[in-house]
Amino acid sequence: MQIYLPIAEVSVNVFLLFGLGGLVGVLSGMFGVGGGFLITPLLFFMGIPPAVAVATGANQIVASSISGVLAHFKRKTVDLRMGFVLLAGGLVGAALGVWIFNLLKGLGQVDLLVRLCYVVFLGIIGGLMFIESVNAIFKSRKGAVPKRRHHGWVHGLPFKMRFRTSGLYISAIPPVLVGLSVGVLAAIMGVGGGFIMVPAMIYLLGMPTKVVVGTSLFQIIFVSAFTTLLHATTNYTVDIMLALVLILGGVIGAQIGTAFGTRLKAEQLRIALASLVLLVCGKLALDLFITPSELYELVAP
Amino acid sequence: MRLLAALLLLLAALPARAEEVVLGLSRDSVSITTDFDGSDILIFGAVKRETAIQAVPPLQVIVTVEGPLEPVTVWRKARRLGIWVNAEAVEIDSAPSFYAVATSAPWKESISAVEDLRHGVSIPRAIRSVGAPMDIMDSEAFTEALIRVREEQGLYRVEEESVELRDSTLFDTSITMPANISEGRYLTRVFLTRGGKVVSAHESEIQVGKVGLERWLFTLSRQMPLAYGLLSLAIAALAGWGASALFRAIRSG
């Protein structure tokens, strides 16, 4: 059954879209990521214009993050104070990101920018995560106690704040910067940024793993909502129909994913996520390097 | 002298008047609804004439359907630092968003190059270009690429010998519009030709537009983008909350 998308102005198979939403939902339930880094490139492959894919992806993330964060609120694994500090940076970053996005759209380079961002960030994050989880598995086999590293340069900065839920007393500058950079990426890549923020929160801010996912989801809701609004008012590229089908698939998938996730070990989960990230990165990188079959591209001004 | 010339011209034009198109369309509007998956339009008609059918040269029919004209930028990729990037652009002033040509005979027998140029019948003639920057020498390659890409998307199509012509009088053809067509007024033209010369032409219009929910959402997104954005967020929030509440209920009940 085909469905006509009023903003994207293309007709796509509704079951394929629903399945895509569902698949991403499963992953977000399992790993606590929004799944935008998968949805946006997959929408490209389905023939949805990149600008619509990015903007609608942001809208879909709002729904999946809300669905995910509610469970974390119940378990009290959301550091609200940290969430608001991250958010302050995130909103500024999102505005900056949409500005950059529109600037490059005018230059005809937005597609390249989005793809390059994906390759670079998925490559770095996926690689680091993969190495780290492999190490963690070896260490746990040897029976060594994982050591928490502390007191780096991060702890010498001013504006210290106490984050009770995370049990941290650190400067507000690193979280604001983390939020800011994730906000920029959210706007450009149509992602929530969880796959960047989660490692950043663990390794850069030293937050305990159990509050990381909930806090990340909490701030992603607002950053993606803000991004959605900016895209809707400056580019008119948010497609409600597309978002709705993806959301319906996504929220169902997320519940299935959450059930799966609790049965797997943290290291196994991380290694699986890392492999997935690297796979998507590899596919996108290949597309950049291989001579395209069609050298020309049409862009409506 | 001038009067004589005018008279001669009128006489020369007379045979052209002898055959005229009477056109029918299976419909004069196409509605883009939620389940829109393209559309076929049947174009049929007859040749009205007062004289006996002239056998040589044979009568041919050409049907064109042209979507709204829009400007478009054609980018060409080039390898820079190992990766493929958009390097050069040519702006095409106006190209039809959709263009279909159907003929009753092979193209060469249907219309001469001069008549094609005069009436803008073939796809290259329907595209108006080219403000190519000075440094681009091969601007035709960009126009060719535009045609190639749109042909692959099913937006430009040339269907030779797809017009059925019976007894040089009745004709019909079917034009397929893909799901990714844009809105607007579609111009339908029918040309009668003999020996490559146009003897009669007729124009008509088909209205293509979104209706119902599609129309409402599109209009809202353009005219009240903030309200549209808030609506999309409200739907997302409701779906996210609703789903988790629903599944909690299922699990506990």
UniProtKB/TrEMBL annotation, chain A:
GO terms for cellular component: plasma membrane. The keyword Transmembrane helix applies. InterPro entries: TM_pro_TauE-like, TSUP/Inactive_protease-like. It is found in: Cell membrane; Membrane. The chain crosses the membrane at residues 12-39, 51-71, 83-101, 113-138, 212-234, 240-260. Keywords: Cell membrane, Membrane, Transmembrane, Transmembrane helix. It is a multi-pass membrane protein. The keyword Cell membrane applies. PANTHER family: MEMBRANE TRANSPORTER PROTEIN MJ0441-RELATED, MEMBRANE TRANSPORTER PROTEIN YTNM-RELATED. Belongs to the 4-toluene sulfonate uptake permease (TSUP) (TC 2.A.102) family. This is Probable membrane transporter protein.
UniProtKB/TrEMBL annotation, chain B:
The keyword Transmembrane applies. Keywords: Membrane, Signal, Transmembrane, Transmembrane helix. Pfam families: Alph_Pro_TM. The chain crosses the membrane at residues 226-247. InterPro entries: CHP02186-rel_TM. This is TIGR02186 family protein. Residues 1-18 form the signal peptide. It comes from the Bacteria.
